[in-house]
Amino acid sequence: MQRSRIVGTGTYLPEKVVTNDDMVKLYGIETSDAWIRERTGIGKRRLAAPGEATSDMAAAASRKALEMAGIKPEDLDMIVCGTVTPDMPFPAAAVFVQAKIGATKAACFDVSAACAGSLYALAIADSFIKSGGARSVLVIGAELLTRIMDWRDRNTCILFGDAAGAMVLVAETREGHGLLSTHLHTDGTQAHILNIPGGGSAKPFSPEVYEKREQYVKMNGREVYKTAVRVLEACSREALDRNGYKPNDVTHVIAHQANLRILEAVLKRLEIPLEKCHLNIEEVGNTSSASVPLTLDQANRQGALKPGDLVLMMAIGGGMAWGSALVKW
Ligand code: UT7
Fold first, then answer.
1. Residue of the CA atom closest to atom 18 of ligand 1
2. CB under 6 Å to ligand 1: residues?
3. Could you tell me whether strands 78-82 and 136-143 are parallel, antiparallel, or unpaired per DSSP bridges?
4. What is the three-state SS of 17-59?
5. Distance between CA atoms of 18 and 283, rounded to whole angstroms?
6. Among positive and negative, which fits the CA dihedral 100, 297, 79, 320?
7. What is the pLDDT of residues 69-82, one digit of tens each?
8. What share of the chain has pLDDT > 70, as a percent?
9. By the 8 A CB rule, do 4 and 167 touch?
């Protein structure tokens, strides 16, 4: 069976660093470095510059991934961007990326699956390559979440950072290697535990929405936490079972970095040592859909991923939407 292969990865992080102490001193949030570190493992995050948009970050990450892949933008068949913070409600962020990098013949669209966006995009790209519908696809996770945070809500604003990550997929030519399978799941009955209630068609932007600050992210952290631990374990086991592997066979875990405690709990349940999980949450916080490609790129550029390594990917976000993928590198 035709499989797809990740041949290029890239990351973009905005220049500005905001530490936990800065959140208190510069932004007046009633919190502390100790509280944030203990509950989340986050030490700092990046903030996009004024005037910088999601597609700017996405284009920068994409150029690096294409350069590594040795593929010209004009040869791409498709760009799929996982994002809930596109430059504007429409058109898609992916179309701005197309124009910025010159991917003239690529079909471009966004996928809305919050922090699971890049895994959803990866699964779509993989399906197109498997079916022969595309030969090379640029998969992006790009998120400018600090612009949709309520900077008066300490429950949420301390968690997120801005970033973009990209992956280039082509058809796999090596027997037994490549993307083995992807597994996507959604529970729409939990839409209320992590969302932006105002500013859409259900509740168009109005003075009331503004008054209640409903144009910003609302989250029930406890519920998100409980769901995340349960379903990330389940979808990881699903990916391993499907391909006849055991948790012990995993060489690297590339996971959405929502919270260090979530990752510790999931890996403990799976009995996979935390050392196998590439971590950057301390440095960049929760970068939503950028998290998986960014973490993969860091591991890739460090030379940690060797041919034949088994890479388990997992992510969860608002929806709730979650998924996993297994790659024989
Ligand atoms: O990609 C998915 C994104 N979402 C997540 O990953 C979130 C998952 N959830 C979590 O990580 C945790 O629920 C949080 C880190 C968000 C919160 O931790 P928690 O242990 O669930 O705390 P809590 O919400 O139950 O709040 C405990 C206390 C409260 O004070 P009282 O009522 O006990 O006096 C909060 O008001 O901590 C207070 N609190 C804070 N204190 C200092 C909430 N946020 C902060 C803060 N600094 N930033």
1. 39
2. 31, 35, 39-40, 115, 154-155, 158, 219, 221-222, 224-225, 258-259, 286, 317
3. parallel
4. EEEHHHHHHCCCCCCCHHHHHHHHCCCEEEECCCCCCHHHHHH
5. 10
6. negative
7. 999 999 999 999 99
8. 100
9. no
- φ, ψ at 257 (rounded to 5°): -90, 80
Clarify whether 286 is annotated catalytic.
yes
Token digits of residue 40: 């989340």
- The pLDDT tens digits for 258-283 are 999 999 999 999 999 999 999 999 99
Q: Closest Cα partner for 236 from 171, 316, 158, 177? A: 316
Amino acid in position 242: R
pLDDT at 1: 76
Give 11-46 pLDDT, tens digit per residue: 999 999 999 999 999 999 999 999 999 999 999 999
- Assess whether pLDDT exceeds 90 at residue 214: yes
Domain boundaries defined on the chain: 3-172, 178-328
Handedness of CA 146, 151, 211, 192 (dihedral sign): positive
Catalytic residue status for 277: no
CATH homologous superfamily of 178-328 equals Thiolase/Chalcone synthase (3.40.47.10)
What is the residue type of 271?
E
The full length of the chain comes to: 329
Fold agreement (3-172, 178-328)? yes
Topology at the third CATH level for domain 3-172: Peroxisomal Thiolase; Chain A, domain 1 (3.40.47)
Task: Tell whether pTM > 0.90.
Answer: yes
H runs (alpha helix) in 70-151? 93-101, 117-131
Could you confirm whether 195 is annotated as catalytic?
no
Query: What would the two tokens of residue 85 be?
Result: 């913070």
Closest C-alpha to ligand 1, atom 36? 155
